[in-house]
Amino acid sequence: MSLGREPGLPFLPGCAFRDAMKTSFHRPQTLGYKNGFAFSRLPAVGIGRERLYVNQLSQAELDDLSNQRPTLTYGPAKRAPPSGFIPAHVAFDKKILKFDAYFQEDVPLSAEEHYRIRQVAIYYYLEDDTMSVIEPVVQNSGLPQGKLIRRHRVPKNDRGEHYHWKDLNRGMNITMYGRTYRIVDCDPFTQVFLESQGLELNPPEKMVFDPYTELRRMPVRKYITPSDFDPLKQFLTYDKQVLRFYAAWDDTNSIFGENRPYVIHFYLADDTVEVREVYKQNDGRDPFPILIKRQRLPKTFADKKKTFPSCVLEISDQEVLEWFTAKDFAVGKTITLLGRTFFIYDCDEFTRNFYRDKFGITDFQPVEIKKKSLEEVPRVIPPYNGFGVLEDSLQNCFSLFPKPPRKDIIKMLENDHKVLRYQVALESPNPEDRKRRFILSYFLSNDMISIYEPPVRNSGIIGGKYLGKTRVAKPGSTTENPTYYEPSDLTIGSTVEVFGHRFVITDADEYVLNYMESNAESFPAATLQSLRDHFRPRDIPMLQTNKQELDELIVQVQEELNHKNLNKKNIQEAFLQCDKDGSGILDKAEVLALCDSLGVPTNTILLNKLIDLCSCGEDKINYHDFLRAFPS
């Protein structure tokens, strides 16, 4: 219950009394709200809505009295409790830093502006260190304006840091999400706050405005002085008068280019130009005569932009300083029309009279057009890669779609199933390979060679086809001038090199000799003679010698040699080793030398007669009949 007192009595014990009529004892409100902000105010009335006098003490005086109260009477003064903790969202509530900025944006698809300046306001909220970027909305701008960056903590770098108000200042660039903003100024509250925190601000800059927007605001006034040229008079004077020039466009320097003739028409009525193509019969071109339709052609541009879309838009009078006129055409000179250069080599009679009367030109000597001779490019055949037949691979260099090489059909029909067979031995440093015998077949129909090895039991070598049918080139043959083996090269004792392997011809069929004798004019005499010498020694002894007589002589020699101590097995092995080519024929001198080394008595009458009977001409001996006298 409150105590009441009279205004004139001091506020001392005994001078206060209770007001029995007082019923309200509530305290007045000292906290108010205005425009959404909370603020404190002094009470207008006291407790229970009592009147407050004007001479009451202020809060500062009351605090001073509380600190200076008498210590002896009331004891030491109690210290006021510390002020309560105020969080940042309360201390900085509704406190926002505002910066004026702009950024530049490229405009690639516009012929009137290349970049655009957009002004924005950057807001920094002190209560939670968030930022937002807002662009003022302009009506009919065609741009998505308004809030460009919503309110949130903006990342500063990739290390997880965020922008702080200490990072903001005037006259600096700030990059947010790939877009760079230029801060030029700030509001007074922002300036006071940053300076109170000890941050030195840069001097403000002027705001940059969009040049295209400023240009649109300026009134465009163009004053064009009317020309004294009367186009109607030109039309009435030169109507249906056309200058004709004969020109050529030389495009031979480019791929598939050529030197093509054209006709250039210049219409004097309106200074327009037309270019027509000249077509010839069966030239392979579509009948489209107009190369450049009738129009005015620019000669000099004011400022021709090569950017899109200026490079594809129509040409107006403001972009051209000078147009082509009749004085720009002359015989013997070149002229460039829309990027294509034409050489004028002649004109018609009306054009000559016009230039003679108008410009006083009398030299109209036509220029003879000489066609450039096409340079013959030498055809270079790539080297043979080893795959397939040489003739088949060569066809890929002659045409895009290769065709099989042409064959001699007459030769194939005449020589069908005609094969020359030879017995060959492999020439090798390996002793086991020397004993191998092969059958070489030469096919006369297509000049191909095949090699077959007859299987020999218990030899350790698998016989069969050694080489398929193919054409074999001679040693030293080149891909530019290949030479292949022919029947004339296959003689008895000659060497045939087949893909690095050397074969020696030791025997042949009698059909080979008969075929060559029937076609003797097609073969060299040396080849034919070698076959005759090979077959004659085998036939002559058998014709001249009686087989019964030879058998009786061999029996007599065996009876005489039985009394001799001779190693008959060594004699046969010695003769076989001397016969390296396996022909069965040895020189007589070699036979006598072998008999002396092996202890065979050659001075007896029977042995000498046996050697003579085994002779096959030209001091050659068929030692197979001779060895019959030495059975193992």
Automatic annotation (TrEMBL):
Keyword Lyase belongs to the record: no
SUPFAM superfamilies tied to this protein: EF-hand
Full protein name: EF-hand domain containing 1
Keywords: Calcium, Cell projection, Cilium, Coiled coil, Cytoplasm, Cytoskeleton, Flagellum, Metal-binding, Repeat
Pfam families named among the record's database cross-references: DM10_dom
GO molecular function: alpha-tubulin binding; calcium ion binding
Keyword Thylakoid: no
GO BP terms in the entry: cilium-dependent cell motility; mitotic cytokinesis; mitotic spindle organization
Annotated compartments: Cytoplasm, Cytoskeleton, Flagellum axoneme
Domain DM10, residue spans: 93-198, 239-359, 416-520
Coiled coil (residue ranges): 540-574
Residues annotated as domain EF-hand: 566-601
One cellular component (GO) term of this entry: mitotic spindle
InterPro entries from the UniProt entry: DM10_dom, EF-hand-dom_pair, EF_Hand_1_Ca_BS, EF_hand_dom, EFHC1/EFHC2/EFHB
